[in-house]
Design goal:
Distance between the termini: 77 Å
Number of strands: 5
Structural class: alpha+beta
Radius of gyration: 28 Å
CATH architecture of the largest domain: 2-Layer Sandwich
Largest sheet: 5 strands, antiparallel
CATH superfamily of the largest domain: GAF domain
Shape: elongated
Strand content: 15-25%
CATH topology of the largest domain: Beta-Lactamase
Order of helices and strands: HHEEHHEHEEHHHH
Number of domains: 2
Length: 244
């Protein structure tokens, strides 16, 4: 296998390996931007993602100038990458000096950062756009068609990895929430038993006393229940329905 073909294959393997225990999204996207510069005959690359609840964010770039330009694009909501995210379609500009009317602020910023051409590729899975991959060049001219196709393939694989990572994170959050709820319920049930036995109360009345004590003393219910189980609170006061 030729040298470039080997690098292409190795890049796809790296971008597909998102299930490892120490997976890091920043390292993952650094691989993407660095590989674009290595494989696609472009000067720099950057990734802008739609972060749920936070809007667009620059999450990876291959150079400081690329980072400055992508940050400017996000802050001003102007430029090919922003248009690409909104439309879900590739946006190409072989010479930014001729597109001052289309992206006036971005074109000026790109000139200051030393870039003259941009190819923005959507990062999406079916109709779900998660961001855009920007390919930046210091010289005017369109990115070669075969390089655009390879860049889009890299963006597609990375998009799958990002969405998979988010799904796993969401699953972990849900599992943690369920475990917390289960732990809370167990503690409350145990505390009800302790209070019921101490006061000769029914379980329903014991729970009402526990909840009432928590509200009267502005204490969260679960920590209070744990304190009851551990004997770290005045249980008689709870049985009596008073304040501490």
């Amino acid at each position: 296998m030729a040298g470039r073909e080997w690098r292409v294959a190795r890049t796809f393997v790296a971008l597909a390996d998102t299930l490892v225990a120490d997976f890091d999204i920043a390292d993952f996207l650094d691989v993407l931007t660095g590989s674009c510069v290595d494989l696609l005959d472009v000067s720099a690359a950057g990734v802008v993602l739609v972060v749920p609840g936070r809007g667009l964010r620059v999450v990876a770039t291959s150079s400081q100038h690329a980072e400055l330009l992508e940050l400017f694009a996000v802050q001003t909501e102007d430029g090919p990458c922003i248009e690409c995210v909104h439309t879900g379609r590739p946006v190409a500009c072989g010479d930014l000096s001729t597109h001052g009317d289309r992206w006036p602020r971005f074109a000026a910023a790109a000139h200051e950062c030393g870039f003259r051409a941009v190819q923005a590729l959507p990062m999406r899975l079916r109709d779900h756009t998660v961001g855009a991959l920007s390919l930046l060049n210091t010289e005017a001219g369109a990115v070669q068609d075969d390089h655009v196709l390879l860049g889009q393939a890299l963006a597609d694989v990375a998009s799958i990895g990002i969405l998979q990572h988010r799904t796993i994170e969401q699953g972990d959050r849900v599992a943690a929430q369920l475990q917390t709820a289960l732990t809370s319920r167990v503690a409350i049930e145990q505390a009800r038993g302790v209070i019921a036995e101490r006061g000769g109360l029914s379980m329903d009345v014991a729970f009402a006393r526990l909840r009432g004590y928590a509200r009267a003393n502005n204490r969260p219910l679960t920590p209070l229940a744990l304190a009851v189980v551990e004997g770290a609170v005045d249980i008689d006061a709870i049985v009596a329905g008073g304040k501490s």
